[in-house]
Amino acid sequence: MRTSLNNTTTVAIETLGCKLNQAESESMALQLIEIGYRLVSPSEPADIYILNTCTVTSTADRKSRYFLRLARRRNPHAMVVAIGCYSDRAAAELVRLKCADLILVNNDKENLPSILELKRRHTSSDTYRSDGLRTRSMIKIQEGCDHYCSYCIVPYVRGRERSQTPNDIVAEVNARVRMGFKEVVLTGTKIGGYRPSLEALIRRILDETDVKRLRLSSLQPQDIADGLLGLWSDTRLCRHLHLPLQSGSDPVLRHMNRPYNTIDYASAIVRIRKAIPQVSITTDIMVGFPDETEKEFAESLHFCKRMAFANMHVFPYSARPGTAAASMPEQIDERVKKERSKAMLRLSRERVIQFGRQFRSETLPVLWETEVAPGVWDGLTDNYIHVMTHSSKSLNNQIADARLSDTYNKNFKCIETTLVS
Description:
Radius of gyration: 22 Å
Oligomer: single chain
Number of helices: 13
Order of helices and strands: EHEEHEHHEHEHEHEHEHEHHEHEHEEEEE
Structural class: alpha/beta
CATH architecture of the largest domain: 2-Layer Sandwich
Largest sheet: 5 strands, parallel
Number of strands: 17
CATH class of the largest domain: Alpha Beta
């Protein structure tokens, strides 16, 4: 491993996949900063390049291999480290392909500094914050899943459900607030499975921290209890819920082994919208699941239209070795998957624009994040509308009100706004 000119070891961390991976990457970055590393962008030269991999689909596997090879080309003298779900599932494949110098599994993430054999040291300031970290802080509260959906590899690579203690989570939120983060996102494999109680945890965070905005990463329809919904009376809790649907057809949901049907799902949506005005509800949709008929796909598309999502993450089914769905007959042709994806993506694009334009002329608080062009800043409202504005002054990591227009800027894929002083 080469040494940086200033004798400080530089590390680049790149992340694929879910918000849980993002939270773990952030935690690894903070650990490494604490013992003396300097965090740099993955596009910059680095002494150590770490890829937090994903294996939820074959596309994720391919991206993992691509980014590891790209890192090798960019930094031929760097130590290239593969860690995470793809490394966990297919370490032998990475060894054979010689994609990385060090291949680590998910359980190694908490011990990364000692694994890299670097001496720990403490930062001098309790409020130090690296430019390489995101404006929103992801905090892992839970990981693992005890429910084996027929298509999903996650329980095999993440293991059984287990939760962080409430005391540790509250302390971590307070630490992130001291570091200057304005928004904290609670994430995990299945945060609705948080034990002893997700509702009680959120209450403690709202009562015992000064966090400006608190966001939840993902819930299931069966998690939507009245007590939980009542917490949104506190305006610090962001009006955004991500509820993975996967399919709007009941026969497909049964084959997927999902723990709900479309009636359950629609009921949860109604209750959420009644309890949280102006809420944004986003979802995940899979197309081309084995034996999904044209009729079932049409049902799914129609159901998604009826739910009026604010955004949809659309992806084709990808067989994961070892899962029940991988051995199901009637695997769908890739051409059919592509056509169904296009139809769902058209609906998703329409819904993003339509949801945002509901708020034209309204003033909403925005957490401003990055300067995407000279004098052009992008950010997120609490209900997850991606917006932009013009400012000659830095808006980074500030919460400031903005009035939304009805103009959707296609270059920046967001709604244009005007700052309100």
